[in-house]
Structures are given as C-alpha cells and as structure tokens.
Design a protein that fits this description.
Mean pLDDT: 96
CATH topology of the largest domain: Nucleoside Triphosphate Pyrophosphohydrolase
Number of domains: 2
Largest sheet: 6 strands, mixed
Order of helices and strands: HEEHEEEHHEEEEEEHEEEHH
Strand content: 25-35%
Number of helices: 7
Length: about 290
C-alpha cells in the first residue's frame, strides 16, 4: 500500500507473550524503541532510531512491551521514563516525520509501539472499581488488582470515505488545518452501527450529501492516538455540500483539479499527506477516472 504503518509488520508472536523464559532469552539482543511521554521516539543525530539492544539498556524493565519478532530478533517498546540515563539518545522524532524518513519496518513498529504505550499510560487504573492495574502478557493485558477485570489495548474504528458523484470528488477541511488543505471525510463508528451505516451518517452529518452506496477498500492503523481507519469509496447524489460546526468547508472537485493537487501542482488545493490512507483514497479515485 502507498501509505504508512501497514507494510513490513513484525510477527507479533502472540504465543511468546506468556513465555517469560523465551522473552528473557530474546532481551539481550532485542531491538528496543524508546518513546517519550508524548509518543515521540528517541533518535540519533541523523534522526534515525539508534541501534539499542537489551544489553545496552540493562535489565528488562517491567514496562517494556514485547512488540514481536523479525528474523528471530525480538523487538520491544520502552517508555523513556524507564530508560537508563546513560543511554545516548540526543533527540526525539514524531511519528508523522518518521513515516517519511525511516525504513518501513521501523516506522510500522513505531506506530505499533506508540499505540500500545499510549494505552498503557492512560489506563493505569480499573475503570470499574478504580484499583491499580498490573500488566501481564508482555504488556498487552492490564489486570485489575481489585476486582480482577482484564483490560486490553483499545482501538477505535473510524471510516474514511472518498465520496464521488461520478465526475467529482467530495473533500472537506477543518478550520485548524493549513490554508488550502482538504481531505476525505471521516468519522468514528458508533455503538450498534455497521460500517456502511457510519459512512452514510458521517457524510451526511458533515456535508449534507446523501450516500447511495459504498464499498470497503483498505485500512490503516492511525495511532493518533488509537484509531483504525477503514477506507471506503462511496457513491452519492450531486447534492450541494452544506457544513455545520464539524467542517469549515466542503466542496466538489473535478478530476483535473485533483490531478494537479496530487502532483503538488495546484496553487490553492493541498491534499492529505502521502503517509495517509486519505491521500491513497483520493489517488485511487483519480486513477479510475481515466
């Protein structure tokens, strides 16, 4: 796929999460990604992830999360607060920038690490009784020390939709975005709702455009902080877009305009970053226009 966080994934080796002896054997030569409280990764002077292994870190902290395997090597994520001060990590880098600069495998692992450490940092107590959580399964399970309820990492499903009336594509923009930036419409799935129902509801809520049909194309993990973007293309009538408080603007764009924007050659229209599934959906629609 021509978007980030999906290619070259680690083998998550779920069966090893309860095998403390196997994890201990992997640790000395394991690849360790260190993330700070903001979810940024420690990097070297070239902006790349340092070649940290378990031996350099020392004894494996309880907060180290097992991410998986690549070619027999274990990969772990470690909160910077629990990394030894002697480690030489001169700077940090955000995930969006890393997606454009790092090797694919490292960027995909960074996305996985960011999502699970974000969940860990915000789920330290039981939502049912308030007691602290103890973590098991190499960091992937929080067990309440009071009532015993088990808590797992949360992923919030959201649809993201390329809406077309045939010759045109519907895009919207939020007020906080840079001038000229437009993107495909998106929204979270509500309880008791199918993905198709979410597509119809979200598009109408944000633009007053009526979807007549849709189909799923692809998905992208989006750990900002913990979403899974489910990409659709949807057919709609040529309704005039009307926005409320969710969007600043929504409008139809023809294929020539979209093509120029995809080449970064349009003076006014700027599209979503190339790392996003939104950009891929736009390009997918444009390619089908012939």
């Amino acid at each position: 796929m021509d978007f980030s966080f999906v290619d070259a994934p680690l083998d998550r080796a779920e069966h090893l999460r309860t095998d403390s002896d196997a994890l201990a054997r992997l640790w000395p030569e394991a690849r360790v990604l260190v993330l700070d409280a903001k979810g940024d990764a420690g990097v070297d002077t070239h902006g790349m992830p340092p070649a940290l292994d378990g031996t350099a870190v020392g004894t494996r902290p309880d907060s180290a999360v097992f991410l998986g395997l690549h070619a027999g090597q274990g990969w772990f994520a470690l909160p910077a607060a629990d990394a030894p001060a002697r480690l030489d990590i001169p700077a940090t880098l955000d995930l969006r920038t890393a997606a454009a600069q790092w090797p694919v495998r490292e960027a995909t692992a960074f996305a996985q690490a960011r999502a699970v450490l974000h969940w860990r940092s915000r789920h330290r107590f039981c939502g049912a009784c308030g007691a602290p959580l103890d973590y098991a399964r190499a960091g992937w399970l929080g067990r309440c020390t009071g009532c015993g309820i088990e808590h797992y990492p949360r992923t919030d499903p959201a649809v993201i939709v390329a809406v077309t009336d045939g010759p045109r594509l519907l895009l919207g923009r939020q007020a906080a975005w840079p001038p000229g930036r437009y993107s495909t419409l998106a929204g979270f799935v509500e309880p008791g709702e199918t993905l198709e129902q979410t597509v119809v509801r979200e598009v109408f809520e944000e633009s007053a455009v009526r979807v007549t049909g849709c189909r799923y194309l692809a998905s992208q993990p989006w750990p900002f902080p913990a979403s899974l973007m489910l990409g659709f293309i949807a057919d709609a009538g040529p309704d005039a877009p009307q926005v409320t408080d969710e969007l600043e603007d929504a409008r139809w764009f023809d294929a020539d305009t979209i093509g120029a924007a995809l080449r970064d050659a349009h003076p006014d229209l700027k599209l979503s970053p190339k790392s996003s599934i939104s950009r891929w959906l736009i390009a997918h629609w444009h390619a089908a226009q012939g």
